[in-house]
Design a protein that fits this description.
By secondary structure, this protein is an alpha+beta fold. 39% of the residues lie in helices and 12% in strands. A two-stranded antiparallel ribbon has the order 1-2. The longest helix is centred in the first third of the chain and has 12 residues.
Length: 101
């Protein structure tokens, strides 16, 4: 890849993420060791935490919602971020309690 293109990609990835915007949180994805699949697409969430990495205006947000619903998860907003959590009230209470610490 040309050096100029690599610099542009790095700059985009270092920009602050807006959970209400159309971007993707590459910084958090990279921090958690996530990588793109064979098609070049990154995962929508961090499996260990449930943190969603796409902004709500991302062009494939609706696919994330559909996939999380099919997996038995629901999306909640905590602070300025969205999380996908198992649709189990006991687990939801525990996560909310931990997020408030």
């Amino acid at each position: 890849m040309p050096e100029e293109l690599l610099k542009k990609i790095k700059k985009i990835r270092e920009q602050s993420f807006d959970a209400e915007g159309s971007g993707y949180d590459y910084k958090s994805a990279t921090k958690h060791g996530l990588k793109p699949d064979k098609t070049g697409h990154y995962p929508s969430r961090i499996p260990q935490t449930g943190l969603l990495l796409k902004g709500r205006k991302h062009k494939t947000w609706h696919l994330t919602e559909e996939g999380e619903r099919k997996a038995g998860h629901r999306i909640i907003k905590k602070g300025n971020r969205y999380f996908s959590i198992k649709n189990n009230s006991q687990i939801i209470r525990k996560i909310r309690k931990n997020l408030n610490k």
